[in-house]
Amino acid sequence: MGKNMKTADVVQRTTKTVSFTWIVPLIAIAITLFLFVQWKLSQGPLLTITFENANGVTTESPVIYRGTIVGRVETISLSENAQEVIVQARLHPSASLLAKEHSKWWIVRPSVSLQGVQGLDTIVGPRYIAVMPGGGEEQFSFAGLTGAVPTNSKLFTLVATSADNISIGAPIFYRGIEVGEITSINLASDSSTVRLECSILVRYAPLVRINSKFWNVSGIHIDANLLGIDLHAGPITSWIKGGVSFATPTRIGDIAPSGYAFTLEGDVDEEWLEWSPVIELDVEQE
């Protein structure tokens, strides 16, 4: 009977326990990832601005708008052909609205020109990048200007086949009165045309309509024919740096938005000189 007695097999069960040794590193990794994501979300946009010359700008140089630091330069490098300087600057989150396609960027440095003395604060302080905000779509890559843009101006683009006799700083006239200037001259991306960026003082901006006509008034033009000789000359200041004039039809069109592009004509049509629109100026900007 004893030989037939069944015996129970005793099996020892092992309970799985989670080692606290792994919990601490996992928590640390989770916190690090959370802080990294928060840091990335709190950063403003990174802009790439191409200049012909860095003009003393270095890493950590400020980006300034209305006297307030709105960003910092992070890196500076040469382009692949070593003909340009590529600046990468990080904007503060509150300044993200400055990253628009029609915004203009330039380096502020001491300069003396016919328009006066500019950038005196950079003699004892650091060089910095200034910006004039514009509208349009969000954009993060820009071609920097070679000179400053007046902050009380509205910007437009003139498209021409050639920039002969026109230089940066050339005046823009309306009825013989200087109302703006050329701020930059560049070839189009396909090199087929020349793009002249210009600024019009805000007070005179209402004069620029979508049907306005712009033409080159640089220097002196002499037309000789069987009927005699016709002499056409722009204002004296246009003899030195070139110049552009414009007129608006008597039947005015809509106000041209900032960044609007016009064709720069080589000659004036006599009909344009007869236009006499009545346009109220922005007297608050005087």
Report on this structure.
The chain is mainly beta and 286 residues long. It folds into two domains: 44-146, no CATH class; 149-286, no CATH class. It has two helices and 18 strands. Strand 11 (171-174) and strand 12 form a beta hairpin. The protein is elongated and about 130 Å long. Mean pLDDT is 80; it is low at 112-117, 119-123 and 231-240.
Query: The biggest beta sheet, please?
Result: 7 strands, mixed
User: Helices and strands, in N-to-C order?
Assistant: HEEEEEEEEEEEEEEEEHEE
Radius of gyration: 31 Å
Please tell me the overall pLDDT: 80
Give the domain tally. 2
> Approximately how much beta-strand content do the residues carry?
35-45%
Helix content: 10-25%
Structural class: mainly beta
Q: State the strand order across the main sheet.
A: 5-8-2-3-4-1-9
Relevant terms:
mainly beta, 2 helices, 286 residues, elongated, single chain, 2 domains, seven-stranded mixed β-sheet
Outline the fold blueprint.
Elements: H1 20-42, E1 46-51, E2 62-65, E3 68-78, E4 85-91, E5 104-108, E6 111-113, E7 116-118, E8 128-132, E9 141-143, E10 153-160, E11 171-174, E12 177-187, E13 194-201, E14 213-216, E15 220-225, E16 228-233, H2 236-241, E17 244-247, E18 261-265
Parallel strand pairs: 1-9, 2-8, 10-18, 11-17, 14-18
Antiparallel strand pairs: 1-4, 2-3, 3-4, 5-8, 6-7, 10-13, 11-12, 12-13, 14-17, 15-16
